[in-house]
Amino acid sequence: MPTSVSASATAWAPLDPQAVAELLSAASVRWWLSGGAALDRWLGHDIRPRPNIDVSVIAADLAGLVAILPEGLSAWVPADEGDEMIPFTDAPADADLQPVLVRDDAEGAWILQINVEDGAPRAWIYKRDPRLQLPWDRAVLDIDGIPTGAPEVQLVWKALRPRPEDDADKDAVVAELSDEARAWYEKAILSIHPHSNWSIHVRSPFAPGKASWNKKNRT
User: Fold this and answer.
1) Can you tell me the distance from the alpha carbon of 58 to that of 147, in angstroms, rounded to the nearest whole number?
2) H or E element: which one contains 165?
3) Alpha-carbon distances, residue 98 vs 45, 57, 77, 172, 188 (angstroms)
4) Helices (H) and strands (E) in the chain, counts
5) Contacts of 199 (CB under 8 A, 6+ apart)
6) Can you give the pTM of this predicted structure?
7) What is the pLDDT of residues 111-126, one digit of tens each?
8) How far is CA 59 from CA 25, 35, 122, in A?
């Protein structure tokens, strides 16, 4: 196995969600499908082509998840500079292991990205701002046997610096959210990412109280 590889020069051959679930079925730690793949699974159809596939895990459980990878698959983490990746086992103890890329060594291709998030025993915690939390049973949904990040949570992750493709995800998902999920998403955008251009869609510049979570009930 090489001592380093380039993240960008290594091709992707992403697993599908069912294959991810089978790969990680032996894990005794909590993990969940995240990112665009989670949105697609929640909707029941693909919004757009996805170049990769993500799962998430809390930092304390990362080593346990990596440990169950079978022979022929290896985990890689960012080196100090550039897009160089080094083996997970070679990373310094104090390294920021984010993200972890899983490589099919025979194919020389990435098959899975593992994102490291925050959480407590009873709640998922937004890594960028711990004020934002959700009970685990709302943050991670069971969709046909595969743990899947709730769509409103995935949108908050995308809201910081949304790209055009993220706009497509938002447009496909927001209209399908439950009232409770939409209210949580809108409040999170306004309180945690108020400078995101997505906040324009949930408030008026002259009347910030018009977000759905802050409207009075009509009789």
Assistant:
1) 14
2) helix 164-174
3) 28, 11, 7, 28, 23
4) 7, 11
5) 159, 189, 190, 193
6) 0.90
7) 999 999 999 999 999 9
8) 19, 17, 15
